[in-house]
Please model this.
Amino acid sequence: MRHRMFVPSVFATLLLVVAASSFTEARPSAHHLVKFDVSGSGTGSGQGTSPFQILSDGTILGNYIDSGNVTHGFLRSPNGTIATFDAPGAGTGSGQGTFPAAVNSNLTVVGYYPDPSGVYHSFIRSPGGTFTKFDDPSAGTGAGKGTFASDINTNGLIAGTYSDSSGVWHGFLLSTGGRFLNFDDPSAGTGPGQGTGVSGTSGLTDTGAVAGSYTDSGNVVHGFLRSPAGTFSTIDPLGSVQTDVIGLSAIETVSGYYFDSTGSFHGFTSINGVTTSFDAPNSLDTTANNINPQGTTAGYYFDSSKLAHAYLRFTGGTFFEFSVPGAADTSAAFSNSSGQITGVYFDSNNASHGFVVE
Model:
């Protein structure tokens, strides 16, 4: 199983004011688990169904990989109906396809896709299914380069990352009026493969704060938080040799995971300059996939037998852990404000399947 089962950080994958009282932290109570697969999902290693976001109404966003290793997007409605989609112009070769990244409460989806030449473009999919393609004006136009949308907030503001003609990464914000604002962490490197990247799915708040990771000139990865005013703060837990930020809550609690000097990895949260490391109980290694607006982190940990189990970590530091019965590995991708959880489990063939805990 990979260290990263989903795509919460587009940058890391390609490289490697709301008051707190406005929210209540819901915890799963019924523990009713439903498994599901998208029709057309492949059953081989690295194929299958992978949900990674669940809205407050129970709508789930994810992708699936077919038997030809082509990726497609899907939305699963609260009643279990699944609608699949592909961006017009997306490549159809092995490793290509449509890569959704986030959906907002209006059911507008953003994501990206490579064209047949391997150049990446971003898309907006309206609630009615209409696609709009867009590219950052400064994005490179060679194979492997381009524009990668990673998140959309309730107001329609889009965040993402682009690779320029030299292979350097930069962050961007796209307004509803079509205006691009490009940005770089001041400490980011400027060589190929270096730069600034935005976390996927939960890397943007409704107030415009952005979280992500940057690679410095020495090829060391650090976390960052960019305030709505454009001020950057670096986030590196004590003992980290590589920090991967996977998102932030509505009150700008940043979450992620980091590697220490021994190669072990641990989860962390950071708010107002105070960073707290954590490990799931009984874990050998702990990582993170996403953090929801209420501050609940979802992820997985490895036990001493190197089997993966899912967890939620709540704002008070308590854990809820579980595994899908009969699964080889289980990972929680996201928890909504109602306490529902979505994620993936892997079978003995290393094919992925979706689940929702309701």
About this structure: The mean pLDDT is 93. The first strand starts at residue 33 and ends at 36.
